Sequence to fold (386 residues):
Amino acid sequence: MIAEFIILALAGIPFIYYLLAIYSTILFSRANRKTIPNLSFTPPVSCLKPVKGLDEDDYENYASFCRQDYPEYEIVFCVDEEDAALPILRQLAHDFPDRQIRILLGSGRQAINDKVARLVRLTQEAKYDLLVITDNDVRVRPDYLRTVIAPFRDPKVGGGTCLYRSTREVSPIQVLQSVGMISDFFAGVMVAWKLDGVKFTFGQTILARREAIEAFGGYPVIENRPGDDLLVGRMIAEQGYRVVLLPYVVEAVADFQSLKALLVKRVRWMTVMRLMRPWGHFGLIFTWGLPWALLAIAVHPTRTVVLAYLGGYAICRVLMTWLLGNLLHAQSLARKMAWIPLWDLTAFSIWLVSFTRRSIRWRGLDYLIHGGMLELVEPAAPKGPQ
Fold:
């Protein structure tokens, strides 16, 4: 009887998290509806893009940055000379001769995280002091720069980031990923915004003053660390600057086409979280409402328990997803609701699997994380003849 009571009490904890996520999302939406950005603030900006490899939609993604309604900005790419993306970048410069487009060949550095090595050179060679750093898969509207730069009128703002959604969902796997981002990932972001403030940035948009990056030592400090995009926001905040989360939504092209690719990416994310923040990662156990609801029903299978736990789970998750989906301007939101339980069970399974991993696999190579640093796992040498 006591064990049943304890399980039923623990199974109620996720509802606290759900209600906090709902409350935080409502507050965030209201706060930003009252804020009218001053779009006349247009200091010169450097848009920085570390490039590796070529994807199907890259040209259109890059071109969207060339179509900005903004008076003075440059777009600077850093790419290896033999990279398949280089002809596309040269074509872009040819197609938009009125834009300041520069192509830097190679980072000139040796680092485990070659993306960050490119950012070292990009930030050092950027012409302007306001930096907009984005991943290759990001696509934006013409009002992007005017909107995301507006908060920097306040000199206390040193960094920022914004929300994002998928450009399209052409397969069930991409729908599942989208549901996970809307209903799960951004729910955690809203809670973090409310409880701890913004101490993170997303690779889809990192906004920063050059002086704020230089204050923590610049990108060389993190070129051998995982989670560089999240780290930048945290380290800017640690210098005493304010980091803002903008309601502006950019689009990101899905970088996977199979369930295996999705699971590999998510397991890597979860494993990095466990190795970097073990207690916070363990605390996620109290955010998984569906497994707890099923456990509560298993130990006390009454109609009241079913209605309270499973019904409460369904109501909270649908409301969370609806609020966040509207915030992100997600398409076909009503049809996504049926996917929520599948995503929650998938995400819970990935969380469990992360406890079995000691390394991460990234771009075909295996890495260990020791002391917050990436260490390449050297492949075993082939055995010679005995």
